[in-house]
Amino acid sequence: MAISVDEVRYIASLARLEFTEDEERTLAIELSSILDYMAKLNELDTSDVPPMTHVLDLTNVLREDLVNERITREEALRGAPDADGEFFRVPKVIE
Predict the structure, then answer these.
(1) Which of 2, 77, 85, 88 is deepest in the core (most CB within 10 A)?
(2) What is the DSSP letter of 36?
(3) For the segment 29-86, what is each residue's pLDDT rounded down to a tens digit?
């Protein structure tokens, strides 16, 4: 399937990209070869291939959620360089 330079310009305008004329010609050739390859892949019979989400048969291995003790506010503020009673104090970043 041949992609024209005009089609490359149209696609580039949709993506808000700018190319030189040489780049447009190169992209037209490269996109055409990609589409030709995809057309070749479409010739394969995949009727016996089950749908899958990944090429490897992977399963997620997750740990169980465990409830842990929380630290107290005083313990959290103990290591703070600057604390104001119940809160961390940080430098103002927006004026």
Answers:
(1) 77
(2) H
(3) 999 999 999 999 889 998 898 888 778 877 778 888 888 888 888 888 888 888 887 8
Residue whose pair of structure tokens reads 């004026």 in the numeric block: 95
Cα–Cα distance, 27 to 2 (Å, whole number): 11
8-44 exposure pattern, b = at least 16 Cβ within 10 A, e = fewer:
bbeeeeeeeeeeeeeebeebbeebbeeeeeeeeeeee
9 contacts: CB under 8 Å, gap ≥ 6: 24
Amino acid found at 50: P
Q: Do the Cβ atoms of 34 and 11 come closer than 8 Å?
A: no
pTM: 0.51
